[in-house]
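Changelog note: in this version the structure field was regenerated for every chain. One regenerated record is shown below for reference.
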Amino acid sequence: MEPISTSHAVGEVIQLALAPVFLLVALGSFLNVVTQRLARAIDRARALEALYIANPDSSESLCTSAELIALDRRIAHSQWAINFCGVSALLTALLVMILFLTDLVAFDAGTAIAVLFCLALGALILALGAFMVEIFIATRTIRVRTDLLKR
């Protein structure tokens, strides 16, 4: 590869970097969603902990305890999703940086770029998997009582 010498060459590198940059934007949006769900789960867990501590012998303490266990699992899966998403974002940013450096200093890093992109997508897949498990736990835990539903 030739080093970047013209604005046209820089434009070509920017075009190559567009797909990973769009991935970074998507990862940021996904991180926003997961952190909001994590915050809501933490808030609910704190409220239930206070309720459980105040009335440990109440008739609803068993339900409260079960919901706290589910919330703990949701929080753990949200944290995994955030971690994997962060790793994916870091790998994607590194990929964009290497794209520019390869043209700047004229070395071929095609294999490294391909590996980084595959690793970033792998981390994204793991993040989405953890997120789906968190959603599954949330939807299986919360059910509307049938006596409250009007048919």
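Spot check on this record: The two ends are 69 Å apart (CA to CA). The chain has a mean pLDDT of 89.
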